[in-house]
Amino acid sequence: MVTPGPSPAPTPPTPPAAPTPSASGTGLTPLEEELLRLAGAVPDPELPMVSLAELGVMRGLRLLGPGRVEVELTPTYTGCPAVETMATDIERVLHDHGVPEVAVRTVLSPPWTTDAISAEGRRKLAESGIAPPAPLDAAAGGGPVPVALAVRCPHCGSTETELLSRFSSTACKALRRCAACGEPFDHFKEL
Amino acid sequence: MTAALALGDDALVLSHRLGEWAGHAPVLEEEVALANIALDLLGQARVLLSLAGDEDELAYLREERAFRNVQLVEQPGGDFAHTIARQLYFSTYQELLYERLARGTGPFAPLAAKAVKEVAYHRDHAEHWTLRLGDGTDESHERMRRGLDALWRFTGELFEPVEGCEVEWPTLHDAWLTRITSVLERATLALPEGPRRGGWAAGAGRQGIHTEPFGRMLAEMQHLHRSHPGATW
Fold this sequence. Notes:
The complex is a heterodimer. Chain A is of the alpha/beta class. Chain A is 20% helix and 20% strand. Chain A contains four helices and seven strands. Chain B has a single domain (2-227), classed as Ferritin, core subunit, four-helix bundle (Ferritin), CATH 1.20.1260.10. Chain B starts with a helix and ends in a 6-residue tail after the last helix. Chain B contains nine helices and no strands. The longest helix of chain B is centred in the middle third of the chain and has 26 residues, at 109-134. By secondary structure, chain B is mainly α. Chain B has helices at residues 2-19, 28-52, 55-60, 71-74, 80-103, 109-134, 138-152, 169-186, 212-227. The A-B interface holds A 75, 77-81, 108-113, 142-144, 164-169, 171, 175, 189, 191 and B 29-30, 32-33, 35-37, 39-44, 46-47, 109-111, 113-115, 117-118, 120-121, 124-125. Chain B: This is Phenylacetate-CoA oxygenase subunit PaaI. Chain B: It holds the Pfam family PaaA_PaaC. Chain B: InterPro entries: Aromatic_CoA_ox/epox, Ferritin-like, Ferritin-like_SF, PaaA_PaaC, PaaC.
């Protein structure tokens, strides 16, 4: 059975055999919503300034039975090595909140895009010196953005920045340099 | 799952070949770039091989003749221009293939739809370097030409139909040739001449016939797992 965690939220009732969807329109029971919120608050292992929910990689959470939860997670890049750490972190948080059995499943479809990063997530990236991705032009269908498109320097705000390399410290970033302040910086590249 | 092995082995073997540049690339940015591309390919390989069986057993315990990758991806890296030529030929092919698979309803559609966006960056990287080297110094132009020529005979095999992939191979080939021709033209390079496959060597990787360097690559790739079965980090 699900033991309520130390959260100050009202104690969720033991889920009935057939969970009643909440009125919020998400199709989740209140308990599922609470657990999804907890899992989504886990920080990204490589970009700890943003949470998994802000990064847009949480795809869903389902209570399979008393004390058994399945979480769906989508990778940013197919080979992203952070996925395993994300899964371990989610398991730990849900264990700590009284769910003994947590299965994290990786789903690919529909593919993650940088448009899934929330406004708050973008703000936090910029604040930490990582230029957030530009919104994808739906017509262009994503992919490499022309070099001419301005990316703003997260340090001084100048748009006079140049591409040093399309690949940087993690799979999701490109390396740029600002012509105005001279600082190199990471750019979360559009995908 | 012949097709899962074919596509998965392409990604796995090229990933390993690109990883060989770690510590050897001409500049730090390129070391990071090639390692990033290798990582993307490894991620694809894991998904694809898992469709065919146990990913670790398939990667580390198969013999050479059981691999179904095209011979292009197993070719040694050579100099940097040679590696870029291999990247140009392969990533252009892989992007076109994944675009088509992503539109289908087959078992590869979800992976293809995701990976095609990553491969677009690989292709873009290869094109940029082809332009810089081809339209660069006499030395870089000559090295790029040599790389393109040397690997040309391995390009015919890319368009051998793979059973289980619902793709119109002739149109895929035409799109590839158009794209490569246009890039080489802009890079002041000529499209290589000569056969696209060789009777004795090129064109049989999908049937498990591989070139000599592949065995040595596998020995290195598999030795840890074979020497220490079940080892984990």
